[in-house]
Amino acid sequence: MTQRTVLFALFDAVQSLDVTGPLEVFAGAEKHKPGTYDIRTASLDGAPVRSSSGLTLAPDQALGDRLDAHTTLVVPGGQGTRTPNPDLVEWLREHGPRAERLVSVCTGAILLAAAGLLDGRRATTHWAYCGKLARDHPGVEVDPDPIYVRDGHVATSAGVTSGIDLALALVEEDLGRDVALGIARHLVVFLRRPGNQAQFSAQLAAQTAQREPFREVQRWITEHPDTDLTVEALAARASLSPRHFARAFQAETGMTPGRYVDRVRLEHARRLLEDTGDGIEEISRSSGYGTPEAMRRAFLKALGAAPAEYRRRFRPAPAR
């Protein structure tokens, strides 16, 4: 079995969890199967860096002139990406393409984009910086929804803990599901989330409406996902015509009523699958899908996994 190098590029004002979270995943895999990964941290000159939280990180080495043919290069995010070090960007531009896998965590995608390594690729970053990434680098296809995105040998992840999910996916790719599952359970994240899972809940994804009729409608949708939530029914609750309601709801919340309802129902069903032993048919009714097949189609479209598979992945195994 070929040993892979996992190299973390460090810089001042890096987000420490962007480094330590994925690093713990690869370290767990190395403990499970010694000789699998050679894990290293490096700054431009090999000197210690101070993270955004004040934690000092002492790298193993300086970023060198060569990358091993089997290197996974991990670029974390943090406040230091707001005004990127031009020398680091230039190093990434020159050496990044040589990596077997190029990975960013959170706003590390901004560094990759600045080095031209995301041009023509689909990518994501922390939801709060997706707009900036898209504006500053129009050649990048920015997807603000998933927790991580794979495009060829380049993988980008969203905010902070999603780097752990991506690292688990890479370990599963290298060593199989059982190893990744063991690491996830040890880290008390149980099972990795699929990359196309949304970064945040429907309530966080949508803006809170300013006007009371629409805030009340949002509350009603969240508390009654199994009721009639058509535009006509919701408009009646707001005492507006369906056409006026649909336009105003989108203006107030940033998404259409239908999309908001879809997200709330998906989130409700996910919570029940994760936290209860309710059957699929019961969950489909209480979440507003009506039938297991309708819920299955919604899960496959949004998460790439059927409800039963989702439960198997993300509900903790019973204690023995």
Automatic annotation (TrEMBL):
<dbReference type="InterPro" id="IPR002818">
    <property type="entry name" value="DJ-1/PfpI"/>
</dbReference>
<dbReference type="InterPro" id="IPR009057">
    <property type="entry name" value="Homeodomain-like_sf"/>
</dbReference>
<dbReference type="Pfam" id="PF12833">
    <property type="entry name" value="HTH_18"/>
</dbReference>
<dbReference type="InterPro" id="IPR018060">
    <property type="entry name" value="HTH_AraC"/>
</dbReference>
<dbReference type="InterPro" id="IPR052158">
    <property type="entry name" value="INH-QAR"/>
</dbReference>
<dbReference type="GO" id="GO:0043565">
    <property type="term" value="F:sequence-specific DNA binding"/>
</dbReference>
<dbReference type="InterPro" id="IPR029062">
    <property type="entry name" value="Class_I_gatase-like"/>
</dbReference>
<keyword id="KW-0805">Transcription regulation</keyword>
<dbReference type="Pfam" id="PF01965">
    <property type="entry name" value="DJ-1_PfpI"/>
</dbReference>
<dbReference type="GO" id="GO:0003700">
    <property type="term" value="F:DNA-binding transcription factor activity"/>
</dbReference>
<keyword id="KW-0804">Transcription</keyword>
<protein>
    <submittedName>
        <fullName>DJ-1/PfpI family protein</fullName>
    </submittedName>
</protein>
<feature type="domain" description="HTH araC/xylS-type">
    <location>
        <begin position="215"/>
        <end position="313"/>
    </location>
</feature>
